[in-house]
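Agenda item 2: PBG complex prediction
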Amino acid sequence: MSNPEGENASILIGRPRRLRLNAALRGMLRETQVSASDFIYPLFVVHGTGVKNEIGSMPGVFQLSIDQLEAEARSLTALGIPAVILFGVPAHKDPVGLENFADDGIVQQAIRALKAAAPQLLVITDVCLCEYTDHGHCGILNVSDGARPRPEPNLPDGYLLNDETLAVLTKVAVSHARAGADIVAPSGMIDGAVAAIRAALDRAGFEHLAILSYAIKYASGFYGPFREAAQGAPKFGDRRSHQMDPANAREALREAALDAAEGADLLMVKPALPYLDIIRQTHDQIPQLPLVAYQVSGEYAMLKAAALNGWLEEPRTVLETLTAIKRAGADLIITYYAKQAVGWLAENG
Ligand code: PBG
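Presented output:
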């Protein structure tokens, strides 16, 4: 024994380090695996041709025009990434967001282009109003249009009208389905959105399309860079009347249970890393539905900025966050790091 006393060895009832002795043991005993097939890659699509705009606060992430999507689809497929989630930047914005459900809207064009280029690449679409409305809010607002008073005089001025918004969301979801989307993902935290979209899809003959519900979406400061990328920042006010208070966990389980009951096929928690406890609780409470976590724009920006400054080792820290998100209970991860992470996973084995 190298221990000069000899006797201390007997009080060590376990030596877990035995199983960490070398890379082969560690690899064989790793409890959580992350792989390309876990990833969903977000794409921002814009009008125009030859557009590949890097987003200032998200180095390495681009707004792309439709003609760029074929190459993008091929590179994602080659990397083994099975799915994308689409966000569109429309040509014009108005109070309702008419391009959101137009046949030749930017997202509808993108779906068709991606499906033509790579039919097996799953296309998920974000179903929300904020990128399309001139006020940047996620629904129809209870405001006077000058000529007429506000539509619901009993509800507060500027209130985001829930049921009027559902009527638009259902049109958007059906329009995405008609263009060929595989999964629609309502992201506005509008009450009853899953049930309304399910009914509308079924009526339109799309009973086979799944709904990924952004069931638990916090009113988070981490969406900042996304609002630059998708040009969907609210012109006034914020989203606290519909997105969740970051302080609440029990309410998250209520949201998840409601969406499950309304017929959601997959649930999402967003953001990811600051809400690992919520991922864990949702996974344990509703184990029958697959769970998706969204590592959002601010999480990417934070890691990327530190990496570019040489303050963090990027591959190692990013893979650590993705592993943590899966360990907490997520089955799939939406991440701007998807493509880079696949490369790092291949290097690290
Ligand atoms: C709403 C939507 C947002 C994000 C995804 N869908 C923005 C918001 O709610 O303000 C944020 C994603 C990210 O930050 O990466 N359409």
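Discussion summary: The pocket of PBG is lined by residues 126, 128, 130, 187, 223, 226-227, 232, 239, 296-297 (CB under 6 Å).
Owner for follow-up: CH.
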